[in-house]
Each structure stands twice: as C-alpha cells, then as structure tokens.
Amino acid sequence: MKKELLYEGIAMALEKQIRNEVLKPGDKLPSLRTVCSEQGVSMNTATQAYLELERKGMIESRPQSGFFVSAALKKKLSIPGMSTPSATVNFSDTEALIGKVYHSLNDPSIVRLSLGVPDEQLLPVAKLNKGFVEALRSLPGGGTGYEDIQGNLKLRRDIARWSFTWGGSLTDEEVVTTAGTMNALSYCMMATTKPGDTIAVESPVYFGILQLAKSLQLNVLELPTHPLTGVDPDALKKVLPHINVCLLISNFNNPLGSCMPEENKKAVVRMLAEKGIPLIEDDLYGEVYFGASRPKPCKAFDEAGLVLWCGSVSKTLAPGYRVGWVAPGKFKEKIIHLKMTHSISSTTITQEVVANFLEKGRYEHHLRNLRRTLHHNSLRFISAIGDHFPDTTKVSRPNGGFILWLELDRKIDTVDVYHAALKQNISIAPGRMFTLHNQFNNCMRLSYGIHWNPKTEQALKKLGRLIKNMY
Q1: What's the CA dihedral at 467, 458, 15, 392 to 10 degrees?
Q2: Cβ distance 440 to 432 under 8 Å?
C-alpha cells in the first residue's frame, strides 16, 4: 500500500471517531509514537496523518503536550430538518431575484459565496491550456469541423470506462454528449414529458431545474427532502399515481448537500420501474465525495433502462467548456434526435480536451486534490459559521460537493440579507430561489467552492455580524 493511502486511512479513522464524538473536543490524541507502534507505520506516515487532520481543523497541536481534538468543534450547530413543501404552488416568480444573484457572479470585487461553480484557483487551468493546444494540433482542421451527433467517440469511451468507479458497465454506444448537465437535463425532460405533465423533484431544488420545468410547461411537485438522506422514498411512493417523471440529484444535492443512502436509491428505482416512470438523475456532484469511495448513482440499479443518468465536468474541471453527457437508457434515440434538432452536435475541441484529460490519468489526480481541498473548506466554513453566526443557526453537513444550506431564525428574510451583504461586497443565494412555494425564506445557500483565504474568512465574519444585527 502506498504511504499516501496509509496516512489518509489513519486520518480518516481518527476523523470518524471525532465526528462520532468517541473523541471529544479537548481530548488528547494518541502520541505519534503510539500511532507508529499500533499501526505499524513510520513516524513520517503518522506525522502526515496528524498534519492532515490539523489542516482540516479537526485537531490542534500544543507545544510539549501533543495533539488534541480542536476546541473549536465544541460549538456544534444543529442540522436543518426535513422540508415540508405544500401540495400546491403558491409562490410568486423569483426570476428577478435569480437574475440579480447571477449578475454578481463575474464581479471579482465580490466574495461570491453564492457561486455555483468551483473557484478558478481550484482548477488545473495550465494543464487544460496545454491540452487545448495539443487538441488544436491533433484534430483535423484544428477542431473546426462538426463532431459526430452522438458525441466525441473518445470521450464517450472514457465516460463509459469511468462508470466502473460506481459499479456501472456502460458502453460508448450508451452515452450521448451534451453542452453541460443542464443541456442534458433539458433533453431528458423533453424526451420524457409533454406540456401539462407533472415532474417530481426534491425540495429545495436547484433553481435552474425549476426554470427549465416551467419553460416546458410542466407542473412541478416538490417532495419532502432531508439534508442528510435526500428525498423521502415514502413521500415519493404516495405521489406515484400523479407524476409522469421524477428528477433527483441523488448525490450531494444542490442546495442541501444530501446524499441518498444506497438502499433508498434501490427502492426509488424499483418503485418507479414498477410504474414505468422515468427517473432523470443529475449526478453532477458524484465525483466530489469526501468519504472512502464514490457513492453509486441510481443508474447503477437500473435494469429497465428508465434511468437517464446525467453528468458533466462543469463542477470538477472546466465549467466554461460546457462538456456534459447523458446515458439515457431506452430514451437514447429520442435524445439523439433532440440533440440533432436543437444543436446538431457538441463543441468539437472542448470534448477532445476533456477526453484527453480523462484518458491520460490527469483527471483522477486532479479530483483527489479537489476533494481534499473542498473537504478542508467545508470544515473551515462550518467552523467559521459556528464562531460568527447566531447560535440558532442550522447548517447542513455534506459529505461531498461544495454547497452548504443554512437555516436561520424564522424572523430573518434572506432576501434582505442578500441585499445588505451585497453592499459589503458579499454575495449569497437566498433560499426562496430554490422552490416554487412560500418556504425557505429564512434559508440560504453558501458555496465553499471558493478559495479559502483571510478575505473569505473575513466575509463570513461580516455576514454573521450582519445577520446578528437583524435579530
């Protein structure tokens, strides 16, 4: 076993004990010599494990005393509860609010806690630029020609091979490339619905999905969703007679950060298959996990071809490249026809760049670094929120992705927080953007996908002070 894996394994085991409160804030950890003796590893490996935990803010060193569980973890904020959306849509349009939040996304003077993509500093920009030059030289006509309608064959093969990481056995013939995940979701909705149909989604749910459903004249049914385990399978079961399609972000939902347990995914796939109801699965965040292994998507349990599995590199590698895909099962021919009708083909050169990046092993190396950084960021954010926000604040505990969901006191309107924070060059995403109901007015989404530095920490401190002043 590689030394890197050894120290990560030790760090992970200790972190689990800290999270489960076997080791509590202020408790002393075993000495480095004890770790060496008990684990049969070198002093360097033991030290690396403790340094890893220290970087995450889980432990702290005290001169001549050793390592202790960080006292900062003592202030433990509660997790938001299960959402309870009403049966009918009763909330006014939020287009103007969404437009305002989006308007600030490219302003470098603003600390963009509302940002829905990873910070540029977390991406392998130099390597991608080099890959772009290589693709220009290798592609016929420098990539100016049309790509195959189904998509770049090399990329489709790489996506199919990559499915092995979650227990899939896709072939390149089962994959269709798209211009990002939203484009894939759009094709999927058009392939499985007609105007007036009803689509079931999580609540809260990414506002882009709500906008897309409305543009296709679909009725949206929001389901009770838990910040840890995702959509409630029993709630879904009750509405099966009333829906035509279901759309779930099964792994690290945006904005909750929830991840459905495997048994829930199996149950959902099974109950939908029994009724012949398609499941559109947005697995955009599946690769950004903090645990030992990638959580399986619902597609892994699809035997009827009714799961349309969507993904992209927009949240992991290159948002602006607009490279996504869908494995649409029995809806493949419909999806290809829609793609031909709406866009003819995908962008040639960006698909080639991403394919080469995946093919040469660079992607997995980048993902390891990205996961580690985002995990550290999540812990830093949660710690800062505990230090600077009101004691009644509730915050999600995602095990992947880069989104936090906060629930404030009910008398706080996060649209007011948004406007007040923007005056201090801080942008947040108010909770009402993520629903069609009159709910989540006291909630907000924060992204820890931005670069952590003193400016970020100061922004969280300012935001907490601003909210306290509203009480």
Answers
A1: -10
A2: yes
Calpha distance 268→97 (Å, rounded):
33
Prediction pTM value: 0.86
| Residue where the block lists tokens 């559109």 | 280
- For 230, 251, 267, the CA distances from 261, given in Å and listed in that order, are 8, 9, 10
CA distance 392 to 412: 12
Work out the end-to-end distance of the chain between its first and last CA atoms, rounded to an integer number of angstroms: 54
Torsion angle, CA of 78/220/102/231, rounded to 10 degrees? 30
In Å, the largest CA–CA distance within the chain is 70
Answer yes or no: are the C-beta atoms of 319 and 327 closer than 8 Å.
no
What six digits make up the tokens of 216? 């296709």
Find, among 343, 289, 334, the residue nearest to 178 by Cα: 343
pLDDT in tens, 91-137: 556 777 888 777 766 777 899 999 888 899 999 999 999 999 999 99
